[in-house]
């Protein structure tokens, strides 16, 4: 049905509601993916499910093929402990701000990291302040005195006890995370587990994930052996030794680690967000645990669940071939520039013809916009996005920001709609 809107990006739920009064004999309504706004009002008006489809018409077959196969990514079985590593140097108010940030990114437990030979005089106040906000709190320290104080102040978890300091677990109610005396000494962890079981007290065991190339592979083997020996205990993996200490994009590292976590049924992870390249490690951990849990539950490969961990590339970056783009260009009868990206580069066209290149600077002299600063600026921005998309093999949609998965900056949808309206008007000048 034609609603009289030539640009899907300008369509709104309110417009659909006004121009589509009734939907007889319909059990589902799909609106274009670029339609911005709350669809709940449409669902109430028509009494049927209203779904937001793909941004691009070319993706409709895949969209329909996935209907009925969508998994519930709200489910997971792994707690995220997000560590504030410099907590002793932060004020209580600053700790709260950091904790709330991690909580928004998906953290379940806020871990206060203590530091050797560094006083943490406001440890008790920090714990109580976080608890008053309804947060679960853990404290990570090598000092028995700090661990006892943390437990007495209401901390929910204590990191990290070994068989020599295990007595602390009998003095406080906090659940201990127990580790081996040395990472290679798995027998000491087994003895600590046995003691906790004899005391009939809850615990989480962590055989310690070591960084590359200092025993990473062997530490993965320890996790596997621990799970085989104790099928039912709770286990923690500290993923920061990989995400922080490996100079590589953390999205892929988290995806791989959480695949292992799902296979080994690991119930808790400790993650950090210190290095600039790991700034979104907590958010990445959150989506990774959900994806891998769903894949395990569905007994299928972790594909087509979410593109949130595809930061740099995409599975299908170029929906249209050069021949298809050329066919579109032949149909254009107006001056508005259209920009598309194919495997062989950037295409820009209007009724005056089509240009193709991989370098926007070589395209500019042919666009005849030197006397229109605003239009030239607009085309410069869009061609720069198109070039980045072509270089990185990402999906480009004109007037839309490039998507970087979980690393994309969230924006007000109304702002995006206004931006699209302005750019569409600008193109028509």
User: Fraction of residues in helices?
Assistant: 40-55%
Quick one: how many beta strands?
A: 13
What topology, given as strand order, has the largest sheet?
3-4-5-6-7-8-9-10
- Domain unit count: 3
Q: So what's the overall shape?
A: elongated
Which CATH architecture of the largest domain is right?
Answer: Alpha-Beta Barrel
Largest sheet: 8 strands, parallel, barrel
Task: Output the radius of gyration.
Answer: 27 Å
Put simply, the count of helices is: 16
The SSE order reads HEHEHEHEHEHEHEHEHEHHEHHEEEHHH
Structural class, from helix and strand content? alpha/beta
The CATH C-level class name of the largest domain: Alpha Beta
Q: Briefly, what is this?
A:
The protein has 429 residues and is an alpha/beta fold.
Question: Keywords, please?
Answer:
single chain, TIM Barrel, 3-stranded antiparallel beta sheet, 16 helices, disordered C terminus
């Amino acid at each position: 049905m034609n609603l009289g809107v030539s640009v899907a990006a300008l369509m709104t739920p309110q417009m659909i509601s006004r121009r589509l009064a009734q939907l007889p004999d319909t059990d589902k309504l799909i609106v274009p993916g670029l339609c911005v706004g709350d669809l709940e009002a449409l669902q109430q008006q028509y009494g049927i499910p209203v779904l937001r489809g793909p941004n691009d018409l070319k993706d409709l077959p895949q969209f329909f093929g996935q209907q009925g196969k969508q998994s519930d990514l709200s489910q997971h079985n792994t707690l995220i402990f997000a560590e504030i590593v410099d907590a002793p140097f932060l004020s209580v108010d600053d700790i709260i701000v950091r904790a709330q940030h991690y909580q928004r990114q998906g953290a379940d437990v806020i871990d206060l990291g203590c530091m050797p030979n560094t006083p943490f005089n406001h440890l008790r106040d920090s714990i109580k302040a976080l608890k008053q906000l309804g947060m679960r709190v853990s404290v990570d320290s090598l000092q028995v005195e700090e661990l006892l104080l943390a437990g007495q102040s209401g901390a929910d978890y204590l990191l990290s006890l070994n068989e020599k300091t295990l007595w602390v677990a009998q003095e406080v109610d906090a659940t201990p995370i127990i580790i081996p005396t040395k990472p290679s000494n798995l027998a000491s962890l087994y003895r600590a587990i046995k003691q906790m079981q004899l005391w009939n007290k809850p615990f989480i065991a962590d055989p310690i994930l070591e960084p590359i190339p200092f025993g990473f592979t062997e530490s993965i083997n320890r996790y596997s052996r621990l799970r085989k020996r104790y099928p039912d205990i709770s286990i923690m993996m500290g993923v920061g030794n990989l995400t922080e200490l490996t100079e590589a994009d953390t999205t892929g590292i988290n995806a791989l680690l959480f695949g292992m976590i799902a296979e080994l049924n690991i119930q808790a992870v400790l993650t950090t967000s210190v290095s600039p390249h790991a700034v979104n490690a907590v958010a990445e951990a959150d989506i990774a645990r959900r994806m891998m849990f769903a894949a395990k539950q569905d007994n299928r490969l972790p594909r087509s669940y979410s593109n949130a961990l595809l930061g740099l590339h995409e599975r299908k970056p170029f929906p249209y071939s050069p021949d298809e783009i050329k066919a579109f260009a032949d149909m254009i009868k107006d001056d508005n520039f259209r920009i598309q990206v194919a495997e062989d580069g950037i295409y820009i066209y209007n009724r005056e013809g089509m240009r193709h290149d991989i370098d926007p600077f070589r395209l500019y002299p042919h666009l005849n916009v030197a006397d229109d600063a605003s239009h030239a600026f607009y085309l410069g921005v869009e061609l720069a996005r198109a070039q980045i998309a072509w270089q990185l093999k990402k999906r480009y949609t004109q007037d839309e920001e490039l998507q970087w998965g979980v690393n994309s900056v969230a924006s007000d949808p109304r702002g995006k709609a206004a931006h699209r309206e302005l750019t569409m008007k600008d193109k028509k000048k």
